[in-house]
Amino acid sequence: MAGNAQPSPDTRLRVPFFVPIFNPIARRLLGAGVPLGPNALLTVRGRRTGAPRTTPVALVELKGRRWIIGTFGEVNWVLNLRAAGEASLKIGRRAETVRAVELATAQRAEFFRNTLVPYVRRIPLGTVLIGFLLGARDILDDPDGAAPRHPVFELFLA
User: Fold this and answer.
1) Structural domain boundaries of the chain?
2) Structure pTM?
3) Looking at the DSSP assignment, which residues form a beta bridge with residue 45?
4) Of 56, 133, 141, 156, which residue is most buried, by most CB within 10 angstroms?
5) 42: Cβ–Cβ under 8 A, 6 or more apart, which residues?
6) SS3 for 65-102, per residue?
7) CATH superfamily to which 16-108+150-157 belongs
8) pLDDT 10s per residue in the chain (158 long)?
């Protein structure tokens, strides 16, 4: 996405009402090193201001690989990470610089189908969390259809 282009309507998803309330609380707790499940803090340089922007994200870690998913589509952290290509990731009290590589749409569908769906189904209440609370049921039910709307970044140590 170049310049000031806005995300197309089909890539802007509705953010559940509780996310703007929960994120500041989660940011403080995660910043203090309090573990909150698979959540981590992502700090990325703003694409317009260059100022650091920090947000909680769900980190998927499997078999030595790590990904973060734009559950709500083309939100600011996604746009910033796409522009910057790297960020700081804080897990507990450990912070590290990561390089982010965005998966192509076909790779996302494969990731959802072969990695994320089996992972979520093994987590107690995982389908409830992803499907209902986060409004991303489409990832579980239709990975191919969800892939264009949910960016995925694989993270590597920088």
Assistant:
1) 16-108+150-157
2) 0.83
3) 52
4) 56
5) 54, 55, 56, 57, 68, 77, 81, 87, 88, 89
6) EEEEECCCECCHHHHHHHHHCEEEEEECCEEEEEEEEE
7) Electron Transport, Fmn-binding Protein; Chain A (2.30.110.10)
8) 434 444 444 555 677 666 788 888 888 988 998 888 788 999 999 999 999 999 999 899 999 999 999 988 999 999 999 999 999 999 999 999 999 999 999 999 999 999 988 888 787 666 556 654 555 778 888 999 999 999 999 999 99
